[in-house]
Design goal:
The chain is of the alpha/beta class and 677 residues long. It folds into 3 domains: 2-111, Chitobiase, domain 2; 120-236 and 289-315 and 322-466, TIM Barrel (Alpha-Beta Barrel); 492-673, no CATH class. It has 24 helices and 18 strands.
Length: 677
Amino acid sequence: MLIYYEQSVEPVEFAVNELATQLTAKNFQPVIKRKIRDLLLPLSAPAIVISWARDHLRDITSLSDEGFRIDREGNTVFVTGKDVAGAMYGTLDLAETIAVEGWDAVHNKVENPYKAFRGIKFNLPFEPYDTGDPFVQNIETCLDPNFWCELIDFLARHRYNCLSLWSEHPFHMMFRLNKYPEACPYSDEELHRYQELYHTIFNHARQRCIQTWVITWNIRLTPFVAKALGLPEEVGTMQPICERRFRGMNGLPDLSRRLTSTRQHLEVVKDYFRECIKTLLMTYPELTGIGTTCSEEMTGDAPTRQQWVADVYAEAVRECNHIVPFIHRTNQSNGKVTVEHFVGQYPGPCYISWKYSNAHMYSHPEPRFEELWNAWEGVNLEEQKLIYTVRNDDYHTLRAGDPEYIRAYFKGMDKPWVHGYYWGADGYIWARDFQHVPHRHITWRYDFEKHWFQFQLLGRLGYNPDVPDSHWEKVFAHRYGKVIGPLLFEGMRWAGKVIPPVNRLFWINYDFQWHPESLISYLGFKTILDFVDASPMPGVGTQRLRDAIAAELRGEELPGESPRDIIAQLQQAQEKLQEIIDSLEEQLAPEERDDEVGCTLLDLQAWRCLAAYYRLKFSAAAALVRFELRQRESDREEAVALLTDALQEWRQLAEIGASHYLPYRMVRSKYTFGWSY
């Protein structure tokens, strides 16, 4: 098999190597790479020709940026990109088709990106927003360049084009300031190691057509930086949000707010951050963009906070004259104030970032918070582009993936002002799999490999939401076999249907308040009394449990999705998962349980227990409300019976979890999570 392409372009070389691997696996040998300038048409031998706009080989009028087309003419396949990224994606698409379905399945197709910006939100474990095992256990992994190269390659294969790195204060690991040299606590040798790491990340991402962004939480310092600025070390102390809330609940003074105000109004702090931004951009010219937020560690009204960010970040970019795009998160401001007080002052392109589903992307595919909070009132959305922050702080341990839900979720973003999205978690990073016990069924190194299906869905469907379920069925069949693969796909699909109805009936906005996989918040485990008084997700038409039961006893029926509907959905997921588990148990040979399939089967069993537990607990909550309202002993007895059954499901869940997962200290709630704890 001959492959003609421009061999000096790294993204295309990467994709061609993937293609050559798959051709070799299908016995197309030898695979011979040739330069595009040596191409003479027509070709008699089977060949693949990879080009993009500058080569003027094929028509590209149907393509947009990063789009591609594949045309088959006899034994010659032409892969044509609008640009280098499109050529890379088209070649990767061809490689996947050959791997999963074979050469004969290659057919003509045209694909253009649905959303221009498709990214990952990765909270760095260095000076993180909060602390816990997901960060502590991943420091060494995130200092390893090989981890980043493998992650970036994985992201490129699945159509991501953005990697955003979030840190409270990344600067001291990235350079030494001439003006404030003591703000970097490392030796020259240590600093060089860290700088090489960041250069590797940014350059390798560029070689995969992936943008890189460094995003901070505005004025967060560290004690050693405060000292270097001639300030008391306490000015740089960050009190975790859960600790602040605990102090507030117990009548203790929140000293961090006073320190925040101090930092915000010190000229030396402003000057320090300006120097950091300028030095960041000059030290790392390969960095694509920067960003911050005007919330968390700031005081004052929205215009005051926005002006601080403009005085520091916008002014620094202007002073060094190295203009890069900016992402400005607005979770504690509003769009109009952001546009008036920052966007208009920033010298380059500026995107407003918005938490699309707050912390719970697995809830409803069309969240309504923008409308409920009048987020864009007074903003000209024909001029201002948005990037959605998509947060999965719903589940991090168990595998799941529902293409139907993700497809609908992305199609809900079909708004001309939405440039794209990045997704991730505040309380977790998918780096080293620190949760799993040492077990022979571990066939992966990193958490993003374990959760490969979720990552694929959130990249590929952001590029093309019309990829059908049949594609994923073939991927699973290729990965796990024609019998087991389709069963695992169905299992993952139904597992992905458990959390969304739970979040719609039991809604709490933020990750430290609610983690559905564990039922834990910073206040502890969510009990039946929490469920009795739960509020539903706002704006999507789900009824409040207490209101629905009161209406039921009055002989009325409220409009919208009822608790009964939610319970029915959970029962259906439980039953479907049980059917799939039974089929897998019947089909799997003993030796097949000692690899990824066996681990996935345990996850499906855990999801079945979790679906049953939620179904029973919601049903018990409904029975308790009936008991409250009409004082029938039979309602109380029903609630007790349901909770007793729920306890049995939880015990089974705990046994399954303990068989192959370790407990870990959660970042946002500060509790140890393991269903057996």
